[in-house]
């Protein structure tokens, strides 16, 4: 796969960077460090949400179609985008990465790891592709009444970026009910902690994929995280997930 297949248009990246400039990244980093997740409110417009959701039946944009029940993932379905990604998704994936890489590198340092994530997403993707992880991982999910997503981790190979971002494309209470985003932490020798993240249409949540450090009385220790979606009770729920590593 050549670079032109996964590097988005410069104009899309510039637009995404301008959009992200309005957020207080120091505060968001504090929330990530404290709770393992942080909400970016209103990152997408209502029209952008509708346009992205409308892509779901258009197979030309996707490389595969997954029915969760067939694999024991829950109930519902999703499609993985293929390269080149839609401009909005590709631009946000590239522009979000440097902000999140700073947090990820801080986590690795606190946990004594030797992984250093490069400053630019294209450089990290190059590492993925050299390791044989060449399939794009951003995805579009669709839930109808009774659907849910089991607690899981999105790990697709030896290289895995520790943070991902989910964008809610539907409006709770209007387009669907139920379907809350849930994050759990398994702490050593302690019971699990659950975090239910309230979101509106156009909001995004950045969250830990696998592990994160937590400060204890004797220094930092590692907690394991999983995320999922509770049962949708009515309507239809669409979400875009941006995962920063590619898959084997």
Set down the secondary structure blueprint.
Elements: H1 10-20, H2 25-35, E1 37-40, H3 46-53, E2 62-67, H4 68-71, E3 74-75, E4 77-81, H5 87-110, H6 121-130, E5 139-143, E6 148-152, E7 163-168, E8 176-178, E9 181-186, E10 193-197, E11 204-208, E12 211-216, E13 219-229, E14 232-235, E15 237-242
Antiparallel strand pairs: 1-11, 2-4, 3-6, 4-5, 5-15, 6-13, 7-11, 7-15, 8-14, 9-10, 9-13, 12-13
Helix pairs in contact: 1-5, 2-5
Q: Low-confidence parts, pLDDT < 50 over ≥5 residues?
A: none
| Alpha carbon gap, first and last residue | 13 Å
Biggest sheet, open or closed, and with what strands and sense? 7 strands, antiparallel
CATH topology: Jelly Rolls
Q: Estimate what percentage of residues fall within beta strands.
A: 25-35%
Helical coverage, percent range: 25-40%
Alpha-beta content class: alpha+beta
CATH architecture, please? Answer: Sandwich
Spatial order of the strands in the main sheet?
Answer: 1-11-7-15-5-4-2
CATH homologous superfamily caption: q2cbj1_9rhob like domain
CATH class: Mainly Beta
Q: What characteristic shape results from the CA principal axes?
A: globular
Which sequence of SSEs, written as H and E, runs from N to C?
Answer: HHEHEHEEHHEEEEEEEEEEE
Give me the oligomer status: single chain
Radius of gyration using CA atoms only: 17 Å
How many structural domains are formed by the residues? 1
Question: Averaging pLDDT over every residue, what do you get?
Answer: 94
């Amino acid at each position: 796969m050549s670079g032109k297949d996964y590097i988005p248009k410069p104009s899309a990246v510039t637009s995404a960077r301008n959009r992200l400039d309005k957020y207080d990244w120091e505060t968001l980093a504090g929330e990530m460090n404290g709770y393992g997740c942080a909400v970016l409110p209103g990152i997408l417009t209502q029209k952008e949400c509708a346009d992205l959701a409308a892509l779901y039946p258009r197979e030309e944009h996707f490389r595969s179609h997954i029915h969760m029940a067939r694999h024991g993932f829950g109930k519902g379905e999703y499609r993985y985008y293929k390269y080149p990604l839609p401009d909005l998704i590709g631009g946000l994936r590239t522009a979000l990465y440097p902000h999140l890489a700073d947090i990820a590198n801080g986590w690795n340092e606190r946990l004594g790891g030797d992984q250093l994530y490069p400053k630019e997403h294209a450089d990290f993707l190059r590492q993925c592709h050299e390791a044989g992880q060449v399939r794009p991982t951003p995805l579009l999910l669709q839930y109808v009444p009774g659907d849910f997503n089991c607690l899981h981790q999105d790990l697709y190979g030896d290289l895995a970026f520790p943070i991902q971002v989910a964008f809610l494309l539907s409006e709770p209470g209007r387009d669907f009910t139920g379907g809350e985003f849930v994050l759990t932490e398994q702490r050593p020798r302690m019971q699990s902690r659950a975090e239910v993240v309230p979101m509106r249409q156009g909001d995004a949540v950045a969250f830990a994929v696998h592990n994160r450090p937590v400060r204890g009385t004797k220094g930092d220790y590692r907690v394991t995280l999983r995320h999922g979606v509770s049962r949708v009770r009515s309507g239809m729920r669409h979400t875009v997930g941006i995962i920063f590593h590619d898959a084997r």
